[in-house]
Amino acid sequence: MRRFLLIAVGLVASFTNPVFANDHNNLDSGRPLSFDDAESIGFGEQSIEFGTGLVFPENSNVGGEFDLEYLNGIIRNGHIIIGIDPQVGGRVNSDDTDFDVGNLSVGFFYNFNREYDNVPAFAIRTDVGLPTGNNTSGLDFRLRGIASKTLGQFDRLHLNLDLNIKTDPDNGDRSFLPAAILGYSRPIGYPKRFDQTFLAELGVITSDNSNGGVLIRTGMGIRQQINRQGVIDFGIEGDIATNSHDQSQLKLKIGYSFGF
After folding, report:
1. Where are the domains of the chain?
2. pLDDT at residue number 6
3. How far apart are CA 224 and CA 222, in angstroms?
4. Which residues fall within 8 angstroms of residue 43, CB to CB, at 6 or more apart?
5. Does the CA dihedral 64-144-255-260 come out positive or negative?
6. Which range is the signal sequence, renumbered to this chain (predicted)?
7. At the topology level of CATH, where does 18-259 sit?
């Protein structure tokens, strides 16, 4: 009888353990904004994340963007990311409106420490983009440093510093593109309820165009827990051009994440 009770308790714990649940308060780039928090998914956890959005480029046709990612917590405090980002219709800095399957990317995320006292949580993310899209060549690399810090009781800031490198840029494009994004998150309704997180961001993105300047990125969104394993997200994000050689754009985004 005692052995039966131990087994039953173990099964209940395994099904209710939040490590294997997709968490609306765990923030991944693209879901729905452009920044990551410094927390990895749980060891042994897997997640599939899908997003789609309408893109409104300045002085161009409306376009559509899609992204699909698979995450796997292969080690403690670390996970791999495999993704692809198709697009169709209007897009910035291009007259092409044909369907493009996009570049396949492979990445690794590692969390160095949890937040404690006045020390932020720190993490690093690396991504390699393979030339699987239309008219692409060479490899794209991104190195992202991440720091997350709680302010007060519920507010949290997330600083993302990016170094993007293109090994074979198009004519007139840059090969070295730094960027910085400051993200903000706060659970909504806590402590009475804990199933929604509000997000906002403000960033400075280097333009691909070598004659361009910087883009000011801003956005806000919501992540909503719909069950233990599923989270939906929706948001609005815009890039504001500061140079006549660049295009501003607005994106309306929605996505779904499923952990298992």
Report:
1. 18-259
2. 39
3. 6
4. 19, 73, 75, 76, 77
5. positive
6. 1-21
7. Lipocalin (2.40.128)
